[in-house]
Fold these 2 entries.
Entry 1:
Amino acid sequence: MICQHEDPVEAIPFLERCLAIEEALHGSEATLSDLNTWIGQAGGVEFEDLEPLQLRRLAVKTEVFGETSNQVAAECQALAQRYGSNVPYRKARALLERSIAIKEKLHGADSVEVAEAVDLLAETSARLEKWKDVEADLQRSLELKEKIFGARSEQVARSLLAAAIVYANASKLQQSGTRHERIRKAVSAFDSGLNLLEERFGPDSFEVQNALEAMIRAYVECREFRRAEPLLKRLLAIREKAYGNDAPALLWILTELAKGYAEESVDEAEPMLERSFAMLRMLLDAKKPIFRPGIANLPGNGDGVLEQLVRASDRFRSNLRKRWGAAG
């Protein structure tokens, strides 16, 4: 009743008493039902209140099903994901490694189940910015997928692309020398993954377009416009060919090119800004402005496309004035 209508935390003393009685009468297995019910209804509960009961459920499952069981592996993963979102990284990693060890015994060291668990390990390391561990986890994942699916498989391609984005993200917080090394690894992993997708799906496929878009955003976020530029130009050419020169799908690409060129004060900035403003005006002035919601949700730093373009235009003109002043 308390769980259904009030704060679930207030139910904990009653739950613990109930669990103690159930265990005394029927053994620990009898407590699983109540533990599952309470944990399932504790969505808004602070982790420090939830942790002892989830650890208790893990201990019960280990006793009931044995260490080498799917139930214990799944519980380790579930608890690790809780830890991973609440910062105790080492606890999360130990649980995920425990889950991997169980799955290796159940399914074999080179199995899909183990590969999925290693991916979760890499994802947790990346989310908490443990870059040395991330690198080892990504390599472990790649080697597994090469063994399971083949060196030129789609799974390997996607693993390489994921690694490229992680390396790019890791570069944002690094010193100059380390940053360059991370970017070098990002470029290498992305090129290898993209080649596999091109080989499998074709150079203009949706899979290739999605990979280009994801890597562009990673490069833009870590202020590597010169790395993003050729990808932006390639994606622009693909979508112009597919949808025409005035398609809404081009607007965010044009905007990113305009912003990058304006920042670097190059000759391409002015025509790109003019084209971007013209397309935005055309879309907003349409008799049936069906694209307005899409325009509002285009990529950016929390600003609308118009705000991004105005800021880019101001930056370009400021850089231009400085250049003229220096020339004078």
Note: The mean pLDDT is 87.
Entry 2:
Amino acid sequence: METYADWLRARDDDELRALLSARPELLAPVPADLTALASRAATPAAVSRALDRLDRFTLAVLEALLVLPAPDPAALAAGLDATPAQIDRALGTLRRHGLAWGDGKPVIAPGVRQGLPHPAGLGPPALEVFATYPAERLTDLVTDLAGEAPRGFPDSARLLRRLTELLSDPGALIEDAGPEAKAALDQLTWGPPVGRVADARRPVRIDTATTPIERLLARGLLAAEDDRTVTLPREVALHLRGGRLFRDVPAEPPPLPAARKEPRGDDVVVRAAAGEAAGAVRLVEELLERWGLEPPPVLRSGGLAVRDLRAAATQLDVPEWKGALLVEIAYAAGLLTRSGDLDGEWLPTPAYDLWLMRDTAGRWTELARGWLKSDRAAGLAGERDDRDRLINALSEAMVRSGAPAVRREILEVLADADPGAVVDEDALRTRLGWLRPRRGGPTRERLLGWTLREAAALGLTGFGELAPFARDLLAGDDPEPALEKYLPAPVDEILIQADLTAIAPGPLVTDLARELALAADVESTGGATVYRFSPQSIRRALDAGRSAADLTDLLTRHSATPLPQPLTYLIDDVARRHGHLRVGALTSYVRTDSAATLDEILADRRAEPLRLHRLAPTVLASALQRGDLLDGLRAMGLAPVAEAPGGGVIVTRPDAQRADPPPTAEIVRFRPDARTDASMIAAAVRALRAGDEASLHGAEHARQAPSGDPPRSPAMATIELLRAAVDRGGRVWIGYLDQQGQASSRIVEPVRVEGGFLTGYDETRAAVHRFALHRITGVSELG
């Protein structure tokens, strides 16, 4: 007799690839052979995940297979009021997902019955639900329902069959139980078919029953499973439903709203989305630039303090929820991490510097992909968990395992809408309820609203419609070409005005943006950014080591017009006074070439808190720390600089810091995705076939490596050869050292080279393996 594993073994490679694509969790790790694959597919966790991916109609077909006594396609079509084509399509999906098998009459796969304990909201049939009753109790039930005691020796199997016959048409029993008992049955009719009552196994007969529940128990209309649980038998429920399995299960998804009668222009949506995308990139860059200089601390419990999140949102001039979103996106994209384990700080990673080297479209693509795949829900920041503890951004409490799947499902629904149609939350909720009925609940409800809000903030949508480049992102294609043509090109010119403001008519090139942020303060943002020069901002640039000539030259090179006199006067005036005073540590001291300047300071009443005394005509000493003395003199309107012990000027702007992500942890956890790498699946199928052959014919079936010493090649040449083999789909002969230092030869079909590992199909072991690149001694091509 054919088994589930035999049926899988008879599938061709395309069908196996379709199964593994639909259920990627079966590949973690790749099973040894198809028998092991069949066993893994039947585990409760694997079955539950597969059921979660079914739409409402396909799930109903699966439940009908469990309920109907003869579930052929004709019976399914009649029971679900569907067409044969719709039934065939659903059965094809179930076979593709490995939840039903058999080339003729569909058979339920192992583990599915346990995963759906109450299919169609129905309880077990009477033959099963009363099977735990003792023979004495069954005899009493049959006697009360039949009107006479059963003849012969009390046999439980015979009594159960007789009880099932008596309950096959329970209409008269329901009417006899009374309207209150009927109302209790109505509560269980459409499921779930179980209820809680006290002392459910009490001995009760028709003539002694007093309450509605006792009348139902005495007539076999409810069965006691234990002392507190009663179940509605399947025959009774189907009678109450009028023979129907479901109330209403449409075979097609609910329609989405129609397009607007007055559609917007062809590029209005994409331009609006591209503007938001550029803004999100700018905000992430500004956030990480600030944190590279002044990183916030990591809380002892992990995460980011509320005050630091609020400070970041205020500095970026965005709502707090958007600040949390930007922080989480930077973390998900690998641009931000914590330094150290204890008393660490949140710092940009080295990947941030590489990210800055990309154009705006490339930067946005990394951010969007990180958001789409991240299992963190930024909307939770600032809320309370079930123990009334605050949920901080960047903490582990932000993790919601279903977030990536819900985001993708929502965006795919938006992608299905007609151009010009705006899908609101209600329409999305209805559509998702049909597409993924088992994934409903409060978490999905909240993720729905958060996803729409975050997609708009990131620029995936414009005016509620999905942008074309976001469709490319969803399809796994490169969104950069579609986005790039709608993004403003970075500019290297600014308009400097006589009122000490500068206008950037678009996004600035990175170097100019950094220098301008140092010498001026942002006054307003929008389509153009307005900067304002002030004595404080000019002094900030001078403190960072820039000279007046440097600033004048920078602004002259990048100004579209000649520098206005008020700005040159401001730079020269601040520079003339800047560094006129020198502050050191005695604890600290003040030094200048002008004794008269020190006379003025000592005569000023505002200098009394500084506790100054004269050491020499041009030197004052103080008991304050150097930083406090600098602040006090600046509060008096002076412009001192910090002096090093050798007499040089100390640059007070701190250098930008970076932190490496932990070597043993990923920057963000990615859950198994429906779009698993096709090359990886193909390699897994080959490994499964080879494992099957090896189990049938012995290990000698595995291919032997060539004789001779393993190949040797330089490290860079090794990586280049492996990448070339991935591109062309060829085989290679590699030398490999295991953890004990033992050398071996392998024949490998490379699938991918990333993260310091080679993943590929090892012909010598008939399995998919990961090889550490630093352990590969050399590579040689094979024909």
Note: DSSP finds 33 helices and 23 strands in the chain.
